[in-house]
C-alpha cells in the first residue's frame, strides 16, 4: 500500500479541510431554481432570498461532527493510537483503518459530511407577495413542486389584483 510522506499528509489534510468548509457554506439550490423559473413566467416580480438558517443545536452538532471528522482523519493519517493513550484495548476497526489509511480517511470524510449536511440543510424558504406571506415550508413542512408554486402565485395575483413587483423569499 502506498504511504504518504509528511508533505503529502499535510496536503491531504488541507484538501479534506477545504472540502469540508466548502460543503458547510454551500447553500440550497431549491430557492435558486424556483426563483429562475418564477422570473421566466413572471418577469416583473422582484425576487429576493436567502437560506433559512439551521437551529442553533443543529449548528452545534454539525460543528462538533466537523471537528471530530478532522480529528479522526488526523489520527488516521498520523498513525497515533488514541486507545493506548486511554489505556483501552485497540478495536479491530482501528487496526483496519491503520492498514487502509486512504480508504479510511475517505470513508470518515464522506460519512461525516453526510451527517453535517443533514444537520445544516433546512431547505426552508418562505414566499411573500407584497409583504403578505403566501407560502412557508416551515409551516407546511414540505416544498411544493414548481407547478403548485405557480398556482399559488396565480391565485394570489388574481385575488388581489396586485402589481407583481415584489416577490420575496427568506
UniProtKB/TrEMBL annotation:
GO molecular function: thioredoxin-disulfide reductase (NADPH) activity
Pfam families registered for this protein in UniProt: Rdx (PF10262)
Keyword entries, A-Z: Redox-active center, Selenocysteine, Signal
Domain of life: Eukaryota
GO cellular component: endoplasmic reticulum membrane
Record-linked Gene3D superfamilies: Glutaredoxin (3.40.30.10)
SUPFAM superfamilies associated with the record: Thioredoxin-like (SSF52833)
GO-annotated biological processes: cell redox homeostasis
Annotated signal peptide: 1-27
PANTHER family the UniProt entry points to: SELENOPROTEIN T, SELENOPROTEIN T2
UniProt xrefs under NCBIfam families: CXXU_selWTH
Family statement: Belongs to the SelWTH family. Selenoprotein T subfamily.
Protein name: Selenoprotein T
Originating species: Nothobranchius korthausae
Amino acid at each position: 500500500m502506498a504511504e504518504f510522506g509528511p508533505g503529502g499528509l499535510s496536503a491531504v489534510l488541507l484538501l479534506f479541510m477545504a472540502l469540508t468548509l466548502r460543503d458547510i457554506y454551500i447553500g440550497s439550490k431549491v430557492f435558486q431554481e424556483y426563483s429562475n423559473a418564477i422570473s421566466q413566467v413572471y418577469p416583473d416580480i422582484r425576487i429576493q432570498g436567502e437560506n433559512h438558517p439551521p437551529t442553533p443545536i443543529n449548528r452545534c452538532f454539525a460543528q462538533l461532527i466537523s471537528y471530530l471528522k478532522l480529528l479522526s482523519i488526523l489520527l488516521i493519517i498520523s498513525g497515533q493510537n488514541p486507545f493506548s493513550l486511554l489505556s483501552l484495548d485497540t478495536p479491530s476497526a482501528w487496526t483496519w483503518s491503520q492498514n487502509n489509511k486512504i480508504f479510511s480517511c475517505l470513508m470518515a470524510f464522506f460519512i461525516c459530511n453526510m451527517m453535517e449536511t443533514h444537520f445544516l440543510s433546512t431547505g426552508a424558504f418562505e414566499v411573500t407577495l407584497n409583504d403578505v406571506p403566501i407560502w412557508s415550508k416551515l409551516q407546511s413542512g414540505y416544498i411544493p413542486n414548481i407547478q403548485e408554486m405557480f398556482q399559488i402565485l396565480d391565485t394570489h395575483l388574481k385575488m388581489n389584483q396586485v402589481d407583481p413587483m415584489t416577490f420575496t423569499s427568506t
